[in-house]
Amino acid sequence: MDLSAINPILLLASLMVAATPILLAAIGELVVERAGVLNLGVEGMMITGAVCGFIVTINAGSPLLGFAGAAIGGALLALVFGVLTQVLLSNQVATGLALTLFGLGFAALLGQGYIGIKAPVIPKWPVPVLSDIPVIGPILFNHDPVVYLGIAIIAGVWAFLRYSRAGLILRAVGENHDAAHALGYHVIRVRLLAIMFGGACAGLGGAYLSLVRVPQWTEGLTAGAGWIALAIVVFASWRPWRLLLGAYLFGGVTVLQLNLQAAGMAIPVAYLSMAPYLATILVLVMMRAGRAPGSLAQSFHASR
Amino acid sequence: MTTPLLRLRGLTKAYPGVVANQDVSFDIQPGEIHALLGENGAGKSTLVKTIYGLVKPDAGQMELQGAVFAPAEPRAARMAGVAMVFQHFSLFDAMNVAENIALGMENPPPQREIAARVRLVSDQYGLPLDPLRIVGELSAGERQRVEIVRCLLQDPKLLIMDEPTSVLTPQEVAILFETLRRLRAAGAAILYISHKLEEIRALCDAATVLRLGRVVGSCDPRTTSAREMAELMVGSSLHVPHKAARPEGEVILTLQGLSAKAPHRFGTALRDIDLTVRRGEILGIGGVAGNGQDELVAALSGEIRTRRDMVLFDGKSIGHLAPNARRRLGLLAAPEERMGHAAAPDMSLTENALLTAAARQDLTARGFVRWGKAREFAANVIAAFDVRTPGAGNTARSLSGGNLQKFVIGREIMQDPALLVVNQPTWGVDASAAAAIRQALLDLAAKGAAVICISQDLDELMEISDRFAALNAGRLSAPRPAQGLSVEQIGLMLGGAHDMEVAHVDA
What we know:
By secondary structure, chain A is mainly α.
């Protein structure tokens, strides 16, 4: 085993890349849960976004359009969930699980003709000047645009929830939907918008897997990333910056175990592959989770 | 005659199977405190929701200052100058006071300015409030202040108050009334809903009485007696509970230094409570909400376990026993929150009866439910306590608050307890149902059972209890004979006015 083969700078840089898909999916789910909805279909929306993004990119030749298509695909699938749970008042947990199963099968169907094709490479966007700083530059400022977009979305969601009127209303709806209704806010409308935002983010996260991380289409390529995103939302106590931390923690363990595998560590590969998930479980057990939004996962109907 | 501030003409609203409002018409004058009276289910809530834009009437119209007023949503009503303080507070626990207030306003200014204005208004009206406190940590009285200040910040022309005093101490009520009078002096009108007729007599200038959705009369509460108003509401003469003389029985319950940690973040710890209760007596326990009432009920019912010798029942240590073991011994309890604590909302009344009565009424056999017997027991409760429902197969959720309350109290009384603990037995219950529940508690005591009645309604406690004690921050005062206690003495026992002061502006 040769640990010196692991380059700490490359390791940290690839950590940010590895964390981006779950980061995107988790920030979307965070907004959904702050609005009081539990959507367990993140995995399904991610893989739908992955296949939509891949198909659009191959056919249109533009990864940018591909990501847009992924967001739209994810949001549309989320809208199905939204209509079922918010308008038809189906159970959120059961509907979310069904959405995951449906998404996995639906994505496999859509992607049949695309197995084995390689996605075009997305060029990096080094930030001028900043990327030339030694050590910090290559770690933080030499990535593809989606990595920056992910961090920008975190910052945007944080500011939205904290400073904007719409963010206040969204939190109010998630905290006590009966009171929000009594004050005249449109609970269902707010929740549908949040659900669609969550779907779009999950779609982006999925497309990042199929277009950047892998980068090709295979069935089941999300491999549980959507579930990790759900866990990270709880880990983060529904707060955006802690969510960034959680995603990096998971991404870090993922990258580290890959590097250890490559370095030929004398541990069976299966244990190393388990490590990120074990770490997530451990951290979730050790952390005292914060207070969940008051109306989380409850159906809202104006007459009750 | 001047134009009324708000004129209601022929408002009608029907829900499937029930007409909530039928042809309701009356006027509210500017600068008037107008009482809206009626039993539970008389249609008061529907009517105020119509005025606030939450419910669209099927027929009829409203005029505000002579102009047609048909708010499509609460936003429109707020813009027109109508504000409302809800019975079940419309507050968000995890947010701070300023955020809660911003949510109830149209075009709120930035948070910092709200904080400044909250301080100003709360000073002006003697309602101290810290804009940065988290609402979940406030007492019920303080939470109501948040609601009131939220309304005051919008300079309302009409303020609707739904049961505002049910959670306040006498001193807080006095201060609330002073605030409302100042508001009236400033030209605003107030539509005031309450079951407490003495309060209405002290405060209001006019009253409209609803029964089964119709206006059945109006009166001047300053010259009408509480009894006459109650009879107008009920439509028949009112039964006043009477206390029969009871012999003093032997000691049934002893608490020795009962202490318990707060069960959750917003709870209150119980501190060193000593108490003896005898058979045949009713002990009234008063106190402002959030001073340990829920915790005391939980420690008695067995939801909170304590050291075994902290609770002695009939000479046995039972502090460590679970609720069903205590029920078998004859210690029964009915907690405050009907929906979700005393009763499971989506289960039928039969199932709900089973949940607490299985042990004492023999409703199960070898692990199987004896449905016939359970149904019979539920039907007996329904008949004995005049619970208005089509049958025991209906869900608890489908009952009105008063009817469900009669059911959950009746369910315990019918099990023939040796000691019954009730918390807020008549909260949000109309006058006739409240009288029936109080009479049932008195009858139970007359038969030799002990009753501990925890309530925030002091009139109620004075009416039924033999001795009175007060809970304050988890401590229980020494009980005193209820007869002859004055309102001032009680107020002092409750721990003073809780940092409220009388308004001091010259409005």
